[in-house]
Amino acid sequence: MAHTNEDHIKLVNGLVEITIDSADGYEEAAKDAESSRFKTLFQARAQERRGIVSDLQAEVRRLGGTPDDDGSILAAAHRVFLNVRDALTKGDEAVVKTVEDGEDHIKAKYEKALGDVDIQPETRRAIEEAYAKVKAGHDQMRDIKHAQQAS
């Protein structure tokens, strides 16, 4: 059965929520990071995620829905990012690993959404554009983690 507009709105709003969670998580991580390199990186990533949220909210409006404007209180991504706090006592390497876990979670959510064959082309395009940015962030954190493990 083909998706209704409601289904599309729900799908995109789910991505809005998790992307807000990750932006919030990066803001928390930036506050707590010790090295200025990570503080700057996390702040930039939080801003980038806010931009993705705006794009996805615009898509929800285009579909005739009301975009979510806050994260999911109990989101797994947010819990992962809260673990950043604990990781901070263990140094930057632990922070990067924790953030990368959060990135794995959000990347999986986007991939699941893109695996849905019934998405209308405009909505798919909006999700794909958001995913490309999310994936770039994920890959950067993965590469930093691998570089730390190698040293």
Automatic annotation (TrEMBL):
This is DUF2383 domain-containing protein. Coiled coil: none annotated. It comes from the Bacteria. InterPro entries: CHP02284, DUF2383, Ferritin-like, Ferritin-like_SF, UCP029477. Gene3D superfamilies: 1.20.1260.10. Pfam families: DUF2383. Residues 9-115 form the DUF2383 domain.
